[in-house]
Every structure is written in C-alpha cells, then in structure tokens.
Amino acid sequence: MYRCFMSILICFLITVSCQKSNNTDYDAIGGRLENSYQDWWLYYNDSIKLSSKFKPLDADLKDISKEVFLKSLCTGEYIPLSCSSDKRNSAYRLYKLKANADENISSTIKNVAQIELANFLKEGQEMKPFRFVDLNGNLYTSENTKGKNVVLKCWFIHCKKCVEEMPLLNKMVAQYKNREDVVFISLASDSQSDLKQFLSKKDFEYAVIPNQDEFMKKTLETQLFPTHYVINKKGIITKVANDAETIREALQNEM
C-alpha cells in the first residue's frame, strides 16, 4: 500500500512540476527517485513506455528527437520523467542523475534504452526477405504478404511473458478475423514437435513457425523476447515493441 501511494504521489508531483516548468520541484522529485532503485523501478513501470509515441524533451525542456532522447538514456546518465497525465499525449523529459544516485538505476536504464533504441531504429526500414512455412503447411513470404499488414511475434515456449500475453493477442486476432488484409505470424525457436505439444494445451491463434532461432537473432537481431513487429502493406516496419498493448495500438493506427 505504501509503495503504491508513493508511486502515485511521485507521479502527481512530477506532472505538476513539468506543467509549471519549475526546475526546483523537478530536481527535488528526480532526487527522490534516483536514491531508491525500488521507487524508481516502480515509477518507471507505472509511468514510462519508451516504445510509445511521446514528445521528447531534454533536461531544459527543449524539444529533441526521439533518437537523441533514447541515445541520452543509453549513456546511463539520465532517466526519463513523465510530464503529462494524459497517456494519449505523453511527454517525457530527461533528468540527469547525480553522482551519488543508485548505480543500479543507471545500469538498468542503460540496458533498457539500448533495446528500445535498437527497436526504434528498425522502424521505417523495409522488412528483411522471408519465407516461412507454419505448422499447418501454409506458406508466408515477402511477396505473398505484400498488400497486407503483417503482425509478427518472436517468442519461445519457456518465455513466461511470451505465453502470458497470448490471451490478449488472441483477442486482437479475433478483432480482425474478417479482415483479409491482416496476417498474424509468430516465429518460435522451438521444434515442430515441441510446439505441437505446447499448442495442444495452450490456445494461440497466430500462425506458428518452428525453428526460427537463427532468423530471429541473426536476421532480425532480436535482443529480447517477446518482440513484436507491425509491417505495413508496403513491407515497411512501422512499429517494433516488446509488449502486446503497444502493438495492438500500432495496428489500429495502420487500419
């Protein structure tokens, strides 16, 4: 209860501080976060989604690009703070960590930001050529999926988060079941036999492609599982993210 209250309080104070552009309040709240890894991590998970569309601001509240924002976080010298209570119009600003800040915060945000930057830099690129055959013998290629939105998931059986998000992904498939211009494909590192055994007990409505470890890691350079892609009708990657909700929103934007 205390942790929940503190998280809500910190989020409120940060939002008010950003809206007032009061750097004294802003520094005070950043200081509270940087001294406790637990408080910061709780705040980060509640208030920050770097894969989302947001307005990036530097430490002086000046507009910068998302790439510059993420590269700043990759140094481990900054953390992002939310400046908006409206998640549909998010704004994040950089806060520079002090020398005595909890070093675990620096190392964590650095690692997280490196993955987010790699994902972001793939957006706008053409999807690498592919040729997949799913467990039912259906063929999916770069050519026969042109003119369709492709939603691609990278996963493996023993990835807990990969499995936990399947009900939400199934709902997304059901939402577009009457659309012939949307294809849902999943790439798994597991063997055909292991996947068939797994899917006999777990419902997953994506097409499932076995033995894709090399393609995921070498061709797509996947660093974290699950990783999701939205590929538009022209074969261009428009969104890369590690959570199902972000992909659901990104697909809606394509329709």
Key words describing this protein structure:
5-stranded mixed beta sheet, Glutaredoxin, Thioredoxin domain-containing protein, Redoxin, 255 residues, alpha/beta, 44% helix, Thioredoxin-like_sf, 2 domains
Number of domains: 2
The SSE order reads: HHHEHEEHEEEHHEHEHEEH
**Percent range of helical residues:** 40-55%
In the CATH hierarchy, the third-tier topology of the largest domain is known as Glutaredoxin
Query: How many H/I helices?
Result: 10
Average pLDDT level: 89
Which residues sit in consecutive blocks of at least 5 with pLDDT less than 50? 4-17
Strand order of the largest sheet: 8-7-6-9-10
Structural class label: alpha/beta
Which percent band covers the strand fraction? Answer: 15-25%
**What is the radius of gyration computed over CA atoms, rounded to a whole number of angstroms?**
20 Å
CATH homologous superfamily classification of the largest domain:
Glutaredoxin
**Architecture of the largest domain in CATH?**
3-Layer(aba) Sandwich
Measured distance between first and last alpha carbons: 41 Å
The gross shape turns out to be elongated
CATH class of the largest domain: Alpha Beta
Largest sheet: 5 strands, mixed
Strand runs, count: 10
If you had to describe this structure to a student in words, what would you say it looks like?
- Helix content is about 45%, strand content about 20%.
- It is α/β, with parallel strands linked by helices and about 260 residues long.
- It has 2 domains: about 1-120, no CATH class; about 130-255, Glutaredoxin (3-Layer(aba) Sandwich), CATH 3.40.30.10.
- A 5-stranded mixed beta sheet has the order 8-7-6-9-10.
- Strand 9 (about 225-230) and strand 10 form a beta hairpin.
- The longest helix is centred in the middle third of the chain and has 20 residues, at about 105-120.
- It is elongated.
